[in-house]
Amino acid sequence: MAEATDNSTKALEKLRGLLQSGQFAPGSRLPSERTLVEIYGLSRRSLRRAFEVLIAEGLVWRKQGSGSFAGSPPPDAFPEIGALVAGTNLMEVMEARLRFEPQLAQLAALRAKPDEIRSMYDLIGRISDSTDADSRELWDGALHRKIAQAAGNRLILALFDVMNRVRQDPVWQKIREEARIQAQTKPITYEEHLAIIDAIAARDPAMAAEAMRRHLLTLQESLIRATSHDPLIELQDA
Question: Are strands 60-63 and 67-70 parallel, antiparallel or unpaired?
Fold first, then answer.
């Protein structure tokens, strides 16, 4: 075998091609590092750096002792997270989001790539065009994750994904939809999302953080009203 090339850009290009080839469905185990090094003539260092990028983008995930897999990790990939989600409640989630996501928006204003910003604008359009709760949740979650991803910090993104798991809970989705119906927040949400993305596009970290904070405060207020109006919905069940 020829001497391994220490080129992370080349490694990333090769791995992207592998994922786009259609050989590996989401959840499929990828070839081992040793195999990829031999196939592509890459160094392990460059290969691991490329994997870090793909993991940050949500295109690959790893499990200790099992290897690397295509796509995003399934909900049961980290069972301890499930226990954490089950033990939290609505107000804890909103407290975490209010202290977490404004900083992500701030970093995104400094680091977001042009294609990421274009994607954010596309996502708010998809949220607005959605006609059912499941679709709105899907695209709203995708937008907030895109902002987190654009912040460019893999560790923070991983923490965001833990918090974001709560959004997938059916009770959480029911409460959010009830809040939208009662407060009629759809136009407000669109304008608030647009303000966040405009600030990111303008490279204004302070404005992006404040726009995100205002958006989350609006959501928190509508959620409190929704839960107080329905005695069957208890905070601890969220």
Answer: antiparallel
